[in-house]
Amino acid sequence: MVEPAGDSVLAYLDYNATAPVRPQAMEAVLAAMREAGNASSTHRSGHEAAARVTVARRQLAELLSCSPGELIFTSGATEANNLALRAAFSAGGAIVTSMVEHPAVLETAKHLTRQQSDLLRLVPVDGEGVLDRDAFHCALAEGGAALVSLMAANNETGVLTDLGPIVEAAHAAGALVHTDATQMVGRLPIDLAVLDVDLLSLSAHKFGGPQGVGALFVRRGVQLPHHPLIYGGGQERGWRAGTLNVPGIAGAGAAAEAAHYGMADESTRVAQLRDALETALVEQIDDCRINGTAARRLPGVTSITFTGAPADAVLAAMPDVAASEGSACSSGAPGPSHVLLAMGRSREEAEATVRFSMGPGSTGPDVTQAVTSAIRAVRKVRAALSAPV
């Protein structure tokens, strides 16, 4: 638990929006900020800054089982997604992606294909949020696919994508494969020596690093033209110009190293907390539904629909719990979740859905507090909406 601005202790269950900064990351950020030095400078201070970047690149590479030279530091996964899609699309061909991707992928893909809409192929999912494999293979069978972009784990439901067969089919069709692994990195193992994706995006703040820093993995040997979003110097092998964010990068590396240690035990513990939360809410709240429960999911993530209780009202009625309606990146967007609509939920169901997400700092008392507060909030909202005007 953390101390909010008010009097009560806040149960923080919004790790999918951003995870609390790990102590190791905080120390690395502060250490880097105490020293002046541009990582591109040739004097001693510059060399020391560059050394911090080198260490962080190695720490992140060890988490992903890739080469440090295959990582390009960015401002986050949104920028990494943009770089990946723009580079692949510029080589010519169609983009194959799913209807439940993060807006950083969907909106970029729509923008790139705005003048040739037939070059965007959106693959549906089933009622559990799992990719429709038949539809995916049909999209590839149309021919001319330049890139397949599918998220490793959904940010709203936690549903995992079985990437192995997808990569094999895409490569057989001559397409590159990109995965937005933002929610999976640091929570479940990713072995890029085995998983043969060509491009992967991540954000440090999802696994306990600072906000505003991420990375794009580009597999060695993949030939893609550089299409940077920011022009200027030749930093990051020409993919991203600008002075490197040394404190942020150092924090990202330290967070990656901390996440790597004890990941298996931590994922089991957090999954048990999620299961306890779901069981208690389903048992004690009528018309309560877990989304994606029949699929493989991230540990610690649950999407719960409280029928007849709009999520915004429920969240407002439980100020001692930090949760969300869905993706923090689209929380200001009008309309219900595109993910839940693609899963066949009605507009009313989508608007009555709350996402709880947990991580390393989550505890049993957090879950107890969230259960108590959610029960009270849902009952209060339903009573208010059913009362005569």
From TrEMBL:
Which residues does UniProt call coiled coil? none
Which class of enzymes does this protein belong to? transferase
Q: Which organism is it from?
A: Actinomadura soli
Q: Which reaction does it catalyse?
A: (sulfur carrier)-H + L-cysteine = (sulfur carrier)-SH + L-alanine
The question of whether Metal-binding is a record keyword is answered with yes
Q: Which residues form the Aminotransferase class V domain?
A: 12-367
Q: Name one Pfam family in it.
A: Aminotran_5
Record EC number: 2.8.1.7
Q: Which GO terms describe its molecular function?
A: cysteine desulfurase activity; iron-sulfur cluster binding; metal ion binding
Cofactors that this protein relies on: pyridoxal 5'-phosphate
Q: What is this protein called?
A: cysteine desulfurase
Q: Is Transferase included in the keywords of this UniProt record?
A: yes
Extract the InterPro entries matched here. Aminotrans_V_dom, Aminotrans_V_PyrdxlP_BS, Cysteine_dSase, PyrdxlP-dep_Trfase, PyrdxlP-dep_Trfase_major, PyrdxlP-dep_Trfase_small
Q: Could you say which protein family the record assigns here?
A: Belongs to the class-V pyridoxal-phosphate-dependent aminotransferase family. NifS/IscS subfamily.
Query: Would you say which domain of life the source belongs to?
Result: Bacteria
Gene3D superfamilies with a match to the protein in the record? 1.10.260.50, Aspartate Aminotransferase, domain 1, Type I PLP-dependent aspartate aminotransferase-like (Major domain)
What lineage does the source organism belong to?
Answer: Bacteria, Bacillati, Actinomycetota, Actinomycetes, Streptosporangiales
Q: What keywords would UniProt list here?
A: Iron, Iron-sulfur, Metal-binding, Pyridoxal phosphate, Transferase
